[in-house]
Amino acid sequence: MGFVVALAAAVLGAAGAAAPSELSDQLQASLARSGVEHPVTAVLLNFRSYDTLLEIGVLVIAGMAGISLASTNALEDPALRSADSLLYALQRWFVPVMLLLAAYLLWAGADRPGGAFQAGAVLAATGVLMRLGGLPMAFIRPGILLRLGLVLGFAVFLLVAVAGALNGEAFLAYPVTIAGGLILIIEIGLTFSIGMILLALFVAAPVTDEHEPEEGGGL
Amino acid sequence: MSGWLDGLLVVSLLVTAVAVLLSRDLFRAVVMFMAFGLLMALAWVRLQAQDIALAEVAIGAGLTGVLLLDAVSHFRRARPQHRSRGTE
Lengths: 219, 88
Known about the structure:
Chain A is an all-alpha fold. Helices cover 71% and strands 0% of the residues of chain A. Chain A is built from 10 helices and no strands. Chain A is globular and about 55 Å long. Chain B has one domain: NADH-ubiquinone/plastoquinone oxidoreductase chain 6, subunit NuoJ (Four Helix Bundle (Hemerythrin (Met), subunit A)), CATH 1.20.120.1200. Helices cover 91% and strands 0% of the residues of chain B. Chain B is built from 3 helices and no strands.
C-alpha cells in the first residue's frame, strides 16, 4: 500500500513539473540534417541511435536465450501444429497482404508513423500465422541461417556505426548527404532481424508435452 | 465530445487492467490483457503518439497475447497429464 502511495505521489509530482520545451525546438531545427522527415524516426535512428543499437542488442540476446532454451525437437518439426484447412485457406490471402503491410510500414517510417520495429512485428505476426497454419518453415531451424538472420540487423547497424567512426566522424554519426540511405539500410536489416527474433521466441516455445514420453518408446 | 471519449477510455483501461489482475481464469486474463493493449493503443493515438500506438498494437496486444495464449494452452495440457502420471 505504501508503494502505491509513493507511486501516486511520484506520478503527481511528475505531472506537475513543466515539460522540457527546448527539446522539440532543437529537434525541429536539426531535422533537415537527419535524412528523414519524421521526427520520431529521426530521434530513434539518428540523434539517439545509440539507444536503438542497444535495444536491438538486447533483443538479439533475448532471441538467443529463447532458442537455446527450446528443445531442438520442437524447432525441427513444423508438422506438430494442427493444420486447419480453413486457417490454411485464409492465410493464403493474409500472408501476402501482411508482407505488403510490413514493407509499407518500413518505407513509411521515413516521413510518417511507422518504422522498423512495427514492420518487424508485422513480419513476425505473419510468421506466427504461417506457423499456426502448419506451413513448413525450414528457415527457422536452428542452423547457420537462423543465427545469421538473428544478428543481421545488429551487425548492419554496428557496421554503419563503426564505418562512421573510421571515416573520421563520431561513432554512429552518419554523413549528412547519405544519412537517409544509411537509415533505410539499417531499418531493412532491423526489420528482418526483429521479425526473426520475435518469431524465434514464439517457435522456440515447446510445442507439445505429450510427445516427450513417446521419444523413448521409439514410435 | 473528445472529453467524454477520453474519460471512457481511462475508465475502460482501469477496468480491463483490474480484470487482468483479478481474473481467476488464465485464458480470460490473457483476453483481457489483449483488450487492454488495444485500448492502450487508442490512448496513445489520443496522446498523438501514433508510433507507440502501432508498436503497442503489434507487440503489446498481438505478439505478447499470442505468446501468453500459447503458455496458457501448455498449462492446460500439462496439468491433467501430471495428474494421470501421479495416479498411474
